[in-house]
Fold this sequence. Notes:
Elements: E1 6-10, H1 34-45, E2 49-54, H2 59-70, E3 75-80, H3 102-107, E4 117-121, E5 124-125, H4 128-139, E6 149-157, E7 168-175, E8 181-193, E9 196-199, E10 208-209, E11 215-223, H5 227-242, H6 254-263, E12 267-274, E13 279-280, H7 287-299
Amino acid sequence: MSTKPTLVILAAGMGSRYGGLKQIDPIDAAGHKIIDFSIYDALRAGFGKVVFIIKKEHEADFRSVIGDAVSRKTEVEYVFQEMTKIPAGVTIPADRVKPWGTAHAILCCKDVVKEPFAVINADDYYGVSAYKTLVDFLAAPQAQKEGQMPFCMVGYQLKNTLTENGSVARGCCRMNDAGYLTEIEELTKIEKTADGARYTQDDGASWQDIPVDSLVSMNMWGFQPEIFAELEKSVQRFFDEELAKNPLKGECFIPIEVGRMVKEDKASVKVLSSQDKWFGVTYKEDKPFVMESIQKLKDQGVYPEKLWD
């Protein structure tokens, strides 16, 4: 078993707001994708293996444009999040095409991930320091109380995660005095304003301001392999209780399931704060800003012109 943590990359989403397979869309002249910079940062921080969670039909594309280059630097595995990977007795709703959600995706890794691991989104840039922070925690994980699974999450200031081109969904974090997560409130429509940010929970009928220094989750987690047993229960519960409420679009989300583990005293989540600016291509209009930001980082010497040479 590897003594280094593994990086698990969520890349099976459909990218509905963006259109197309944005995870393999180049963002610089050398043909790199956001995912390349994430992997590069993770490897130099001390991660030892990369696991891509993808759809089976995207395997050839992922291997040719990302995986083959990365595999020359580290061990790479592919895990397929498939509609048919469901508990016995469950019937897939007619017309369902959407994947079952991030908790289900991570559970698909249980046979290939046996060491502490981090989870990130394929299309988000998290910054250099976040990976170093994760490696340090995973090397010496500390639970808040004995008997809890020791997890962590990297939180970002909301102002560092907003786009000029539309609304975003963010998990707003609440913590206790010791810096452990007590709750994540999922706000599905937050938008930037002239002097801050606001959100709506009634599709725009009313709006509330939200502090721009609020810590939010960008789906960057640190887990122990013990989580898989709990995720099996989570996914079973989703199919037993939740799917019927929204058969075509209902999903089993990792923030919600981790929040449930915290409330049930099965896990604690240390919130590790990052001052880095997050960026990603939520909308096609975000791409020029991302390309400009990457070029600035190259000009500052943070990255070489070609990552895998």
